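Pilot study result, target chain (97 residues):
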Amino acid sequence: MELVLGILAAAGASTFYSLGIALQAMDAKQAPREEHLRLALAWSLVRRGRWLLGTGLSILGFPLQVVALLLAPLAVVQPALAAGLLVLMVAGQHMLN
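Predicted structure:
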């Protein structure tokens, strides 16, 4: 039972990480071109709600990853975390084109 809960926690962490990155990328993509690769971009992103939501989701993924590692061995958790790349790929396709 712990193994299944560990896998579910790892999948949740991975999903939170991936969705957080996708939300942050959406805001960064909409930033004015003249702000790209400038400190002004970071400053404007920190003030945007969607970017902060993405950061929050990424932060929420960390405790789930810790729980997953407490419940399941690393050899099981790591592939489940890597599966989040599929979530990021699908989210990127639909959210970012």
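One observation from the pilot: Helices lie at 2-30, 39-46, 49-71, 74-82, 84-96. A full batch analysis is planned for the follow-on phase.
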